[in-house]
Amino acid sequence: MKITKVTIYTMKMHMKSPFTTSFGTLQNKIFLLIEAKDESGLTGWGEGVAFDAPWYTEETVKTMYHMLEDFLIPMLLNKEITHPDEVSQLFAPIRRNQMAKSAIEGAVWDIYAQQRNIPLSRALGGVSDKIEVGISIGLQNTTEELLTVISGFLQEGYKRIKVKIKPGNDVELIRSIRSRFPDVPLMADANSAYTLADMETLKALDSFNLMMIEQPLACDDIVDHARLQKEIKTPICLDESITSFEDARKAVELGSCKVINIKIGRVGGITEAKKIHDYCAEKEIPVWCGGMLEAGIGRAHNIALTSLSNFVMPGDTAASNRYWEEDIIMPEVTVEDGFITVPTTVGIGYEVNRAAIEKYCIAIKHYM
Ligand code: OSB
Ligand code: MG
Q1: Residue of minimum CA distance from atom 14 in ligand 1
Q2: What is the CATH number of domain 3-117+353-367?
Q3: Which of 121, 141, 216, 332 could form a disulfide with 190 if both were Cys (CB 3.0 to 4.6 A apart)?
């Protein structure tokens, strides 16, 4: 296969409800879509998951654009490749910038699945025909509002509730949720808001039977997390700290976590995500697929990845209508009884809705 043309679409989509973290509120999502064409005319799609500000990791929409335009696209255009795994090898001389690399690698995986006339999930070695889904809920103004939002999602069938915590909005918040929903599978995501100085608070969370606590400490730490894991019973799940297979290996060897949240964009693409998955399966570390408030293309990639056998915990990839009035794929992603059916059609398994892409596209540029 040879990629002969790449198009970058800059997209702006309004989220149905704002998503608030300890860093601020996201309502209008700006992101990149990548369309790649090969010499036989097949078209593959990828989604860049960086936000317009670097609060989750260091990448932004503009840094992704810079990396893609000035380095990654020129490195890939017109190179003969036989397998998508070779894309990350081609990009290896470029340090980090995982989300930029992943955006274009995803499009190559899509083309590869189409060439073989199979669904992306099959191309990746997926085994599940449906995947279990949870929901990640942003910070709400009051605990009462949060309880109402939780009960709405439980009625919609979501299998696991994840809430955001931060210092001052943690133990009492979780206590309130637990007293209203004693048995719901529940977890808390701190997005790096704590340090080891908060040990007493983090230990206090042990009494609420949480499935796990996600990324309590610094975004680039695995050493303090290992110390923390020795002090608490609740499994630690790493998110921000895992940016590659090597990070995952070191974290598991150190005992920094008992669960890993795999995000394709954060680790540099599907090939790396699969490597982490396979390694964790061997080490008996359960994994689940995190989300980046994706539109349909990114969502489709997440669903295909989640069909691999060691994705044994509900992920954050929810239905399209949790985020968007109108998604950019057809059909949209739907959740029934807490499950998403893994598509069986060729490639990413959803039609791209070009009319919707045009509607929400604010800039477009071609490279060939
Ligand atoms: O930490 O998992 C996170 C959203 C944006 C950035 C980071 C995170 C999240 C979420 C929501 O928790 C995931 C989703 O619903 O797509
Ligand atoms: Mg997280």
Answers
A1: 291
A2: 3.30.390.10
A3: 216
